[in-house]
């Protein structure tokens, strides 16, 4: 028996060591990028010989970088609102609906998660060229919304599945209209699912690069596309600073989501 416990203990430490090694392997490139964004060498030397904020100054004083940053923020905000709204309506139909083809409809909504992004990007590019939406904010919103919507539907559907509909029935009996029930009973009850849907939708749009490359134009680029284009022309530490901004906002939102789950 003691030998079995010793084996289990050794296996536990082995799994912890493997997990730590994998986490270190995944996080080290991010640490390098952040460190290089503060390095005073323009050749991306690691470890940096010195430290400076020059690259962030250049980032925030360049009109091209600022425009792409604002475009990404505006696009992600629009996609988040639409994704949560459409995701809520679609989740109501998928969770409470009783109709033929329900599973097929659910699979259709989740298809963008399993479909290769480059295939989706090429299809949208060819279609938008025909209807004149390529290189427009509308085209960007539609493309990013297709990617973000499955995350929203999954988060909201999980919250609706655990929601007791008897609360809605009680509100209806007390004289509330169906709209009041949704606004004052259902939405507050599933607010954590809505918040999670908003976080994942924002990140799906904020970090998206493949679809954005096909949708972009010389006058309309998101921050990931700007980073990609700059990397192809010149390897400058300003790219590391811009990448650190992407990573920083993503980390903050993921931590907020983790804290929300812990509070729940």
TrEMBL record:
Keywords: Cell inner membrane, Cell membrane, Membrane, Transmembrane, Transmembrane helix, Transport
Gene Ontology BP terms: transmembrane transport
Membrane topology of this protein: Multi-pass membrane protein
Pfam families per UniProt: BPD_transp_1
Entry protein name: ABC transmembrane type-1 domain-containing protein
Subcellular localization(s) per the UniProt record: Cell inner membrane; Cell membrane
Magnesium is among the record's keywords: no
InterPro entries in alphabetical order: MetI-like (IPR000515), MetI-like_sf (IPR035906)
Gene Ontology, cellular component aspect: plasma membrane
Cell inner membrane keyword on record: yes
Family under the similarity heading: Belongs to the binding-protein-dependent transport system permease family.
Organism from which the protein derives: Paraburkholderia saeva
UniProt cross-references to CDD domains, sorted A to Z: TM_PBP2
Spans traversing the lipid bilayer: 12-38, 75-95, 107-131, 137-156, 192-215, 235-260
ABC transmembrane type-1 domain segment(s): 69-257
């Amino acid at each position: 028996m003691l030998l079995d416990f010793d084996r289990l203990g050794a296996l536990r430490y082995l799994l912890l060591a493997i997990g730590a090694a994998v986490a270190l392997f995944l996080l080290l490139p991010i640490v390098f990028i952040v460190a290089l964004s503060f390095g005073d060498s323009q050749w991306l030397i690691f470890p940096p010989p010195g430290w400076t904020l020059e690259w962030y100054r250049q980032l925030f004083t360049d009109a091209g970088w600022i425009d792409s940053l604002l475009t990404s923020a505006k696009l992600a905000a629009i996609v988040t609102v639409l994704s949560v709204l459409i995701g809520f309506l679609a989740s109501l139909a998928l969770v409470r609906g009783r109709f033929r083809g329900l599973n097929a409809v659910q699979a259709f909504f989740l298809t963008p998660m399993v479909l290769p992004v480059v295939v989706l990007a090429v299809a949208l590019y060819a279609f938008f060229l025909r209807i004149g939406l390529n290189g427009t904010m509308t085209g960007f919103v539609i493309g990013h919304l297709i990617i973000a919507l499955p995350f929203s539907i999954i988060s909201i559907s999980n919250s609706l599945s655990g929601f007791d509909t008897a609360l809605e029935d009680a509100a209806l009996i007390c004289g509330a209209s169906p709209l009041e029930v949704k606004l004052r009973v259902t939405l507050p009850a599933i607010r954590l699912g809505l918040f999670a849907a908003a976080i994942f939708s924002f990140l799906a749009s904020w970090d998206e690069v493949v679809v954005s490359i096909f949708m972009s134009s010389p006058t309309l680029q998101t921050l990931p596309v700007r980073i990609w284009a700059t990397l192809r022309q010149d390897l400058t530490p300003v790219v590391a600073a811009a990448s650190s901004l992407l990573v920083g906002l993503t980390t903050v939102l993921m931590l907020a989501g983790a804290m929300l789950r812990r509070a729940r």
